[in-house]
Amino acid sequence: MTPPRPFILGLTGSIGMGKSAVAAMFREAGVPVFDADAAVHQLQGPDGALLPEIEAAFPGTTGPEGVDRPKLGAAVFGDRAALARLEAIVHPAVAAMRARFMEDNAQASLVVFDIPLLFEKTGKAGLDAVAVVSAPAEMQRARVLARPGMTVEKFEQILALQVPDAEKRALADYVIDTGVAMDATRSAVRDLAARLGNRDGSLPRP
Asked: Is the pTM value of this prediction over 0.90?
């Protein structure tokens, strides 16, 4: 009999909602987490595997420290064809890292895919359930505007590009509230991890 594969939980949330903190809580609970953003940074950082290919496609956008994000951003901004070329380089490499992650954690009962733009770009394909990290709008706003270099204009531009929080919560299988005390959020994460990780060969459903 083939052993059951891990239950795959997609984790997402809009800017300032506390997704990174929740991902860390899943790790603390012993759940393997694949961080898509971290994978991209590794691939595009110093000595990153994708630097030669990115430099060939977008000359002058890489250096000793890896990808020069402002330059690369300028090279693809507003140019759908250029963005498609970049995604054709990055996405397969991230998918390969995710496949290795699954191989390394094949014995786990639960794994988490941390996907910032899950509803905006990647979709729910391949996931067993989706958890959305959410907080009240005024708390989200205060968190984001406290970040260095952030302005109201930048914040509003980012929000305009993201699926609204209310819509994400409506599409979610689970909602993790970070608008409460951190211990309460941590307890909710542990409870969800235990619930999804406790199985007898069949995948739990929401």
From this structure: no
